[in-house]
Please model this.
Amino acid sequence: QSGCDLGFGVSYSKNASLYSERVGGTFIRVKNPQEKAEIESQTYRLIRQSLSCLPQYGVRIMNNIFDQKRGQWIAELEGVRKDITERKNNFIKILPPSFEYLNHCRGMFGMMYLSQSKVQMLKEKYSIYLTLDSRVNFAGIRDQDYEYLAEVLPKVLN
Model:
């Protein structure tokens, strides 16, 4: 909607594997000058409480990558993307057809929509770990895991 107040944050820390660095920003758009001043004041207060000195190392790393090694970085990202997609596809192949919707997931995670009791059973009985909401990390599946997963998952999913 045009003219509405808006606030959002972005983080590049995860994308660049800079988890201990703060790489990103917060953006707030407010039309009312009084509200803007109040939000600005509270935002500065929160920043001062959590940071006494702004981090620079993550910014320097990303500037170096973007300025000098962008092509290499993009090639490495493409390799990781292909690897995760291959792992996801191999995982989907061993699942019942009802899980084909995982083909439409983008990124390294997918939701299996299992009950918490099935997630607990996978964890306690078979040492297969998902989040309680049954999110699976495709990137965390090793090549040697598929045979075991193909043996065990039908016992729980059917």
Q: What stands out?
A: The first helix runs from residue 33 to 50. DSSP finds five helices and four strands in the chain.
